[in-house]
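Below sits the subject:

***
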Amino acid sequence: MADRDQEVQQVLDSIDALGTAETPAARAKRLTQLLDAMPEKQAKVREMRQQAVIEMRDEGLSLRAIAAELGISFGRVRDIIDGVTKRPARKPAPEA
């Protein structure tokens, strides 16, 4: 995404910097610490995003307006509000 917020880019740059430690062991340790913390942080980020989208809805925006504002689909907005984090994999259409 070309229009990343500066704070988001700083977080991504910090993650990239973890891979530049002086030794392989130092890199591995830092990256292991990050990976160990990620599930909890991902859940927190999802909760914060869900709350923000709910606030938008509570302020009177329609789900379609929220989707347009965020650049995502109407269905994805609904999933976020409902707390759906993974969509089921689509099954291939049966062959005729």
Remarks:
- The longest helix spans residues 24-58.
- The chain has a mean pLDDT of 89.
- DSSP finds four helices and no strands in the chain.
- The CA atoms of residues 50 and 82 lie 8 Å apart.
